Amino acid sequence: MSEMNGEKMKLTALSMKPSKLALVASDVALEKYIQIGLRPSLRKFDEFRPVEVSFAGLSTYEKKKKSNKHSKIIGSSVVKCGPTVVVCSVSAGIVEDSQELTNDYRLKLDKGIIDAERDENGSIQANGPENASIYTVVEVSKGRNGPPLPEEMSVSQSLYDTILHSGLIKKSSLKIRLGLKSKDKDGRPQIIRGEENDELLKEFAPSKTFSYVLYSKIQVYSPTGSLFDLCLISLLKALKETKLPEVYMTEKTAGTQISTNARSRDSINNGAFSSNLEQYNLLCDPKNSHHLEVQTKNLFWPSTFGVVFNGVNGENKDAEGDLEMSQNKSLSSALLADPEGTAEEEATRKIKVLPDGQENIFGIEVIGGITESTVTKADIKRAIKISQIRAKVELKHL
């Protein structure tokens, strides 16, 4: 009861259901749960949701699926976690290794800004990082059309950077070893490739070399939890299942190439630059393929944790201690594995770990800073320990 301007006004307490409170004030709702030792999802603090990883069977080289005969997909996967379903498909393109994307490349080369070496064909190539990556597009299905969301673009860029710096794919594994399509003595078409035909292939080989460029499209349905984790798991599985097509050039193209190379050499000797005269008709074999060489020792399993503070003056447990709380003994902070739901996902403090299940960590990201009032060293140690144990078990499913 309160009095204002001589008039009495009655104040009543406003009560809300937990579901409504989570929408209006998610941080307050989560704090109430933490104080009584619960999570909105009723999972334990260090408990992750089960993740199902499987092969989608969308590849054109899947022999059991005749309907995929004309598909451009060469690798695929499906990941399920709760209501969330993630479908990843991998495709590829072909690019010249010596293709110059900037006009000032040779200027930088002459000034020593870029180191270079000549390959076996005499072409100058710059020494770059030996790791390769995959260009990824993430699409979250929300029943609308429009430009990509900032979250989708951020996750796509993070996936590219993660694969690149992990060393999972080497540039050497994307090199194309060209074959030659010809006819045998009976007039039947055949494709010549292999070490036993090296001398023949070198005679018709072009002066330029080629490599695959990998692309992936990841579609997310009913997103909950960490979008980056589920997309990365689906991408790792799809890469392990990827089959690169065998590439060859026709005999007609190879014959034309001999005269083209001769003209190119004459032009170079005369001081003219005529590499653009070389044209190739490269074809992908619809039946023959080989597995993408993935560095299995560099495989990892992502884990995300949320750090939540409840504002209660309690005693922090040690990093090795149990994170469960009782009603009589509360913590001032809690480490929540695999944040799920509006209240947990909106936590401003998070820890992301990329362990291999042994002793290596390919990446760790701490959001919120490392101080006594935000994320502590004990939280990071605990997150690393839990994620390593999880990765050791989950990596068997990839």
Keywords:
alpha+beta, Ribosomal Protein S5, domain 2, 2 domains, five-stranded mixed sheet, 9 helices
Structure description:
The protein is α+β, with helices and mostly antiparallel strands and 398 residues long. It folds into 2 domains: 26-49 and 300-397, no CATH class; 56-105 and 117-240 and 243-291, GHMP Kinase, N-terminal domain (Ribosomal Protein S5, domain 2). 26% of the residues lie in helices and 28% in strands. It is built from 9 helices and 19 strands. It has helices at 18-24, 26-35, 105-110, 150-166, 198-204, 227-240, 251-269, 341-345, 377-394, and strands at residues 2-4, 7-9, 52-54, 75-81, 84-96, 116-118, 124-126, 131-132, 135-141, 169-170, 179-183, 189-192, 210-221, 243-250, 282-291, 303-309, 333-337, 350-355, 361-367. It has a 5-stranded mixed beta sheet with strand order 3-4-5-13-9. The chain has a 4-stranded mixed beta sheet with strand order 12-11-14-15. Strand 1 (2-4) and strand 2 form a beta hairpin. The termini are far apart.
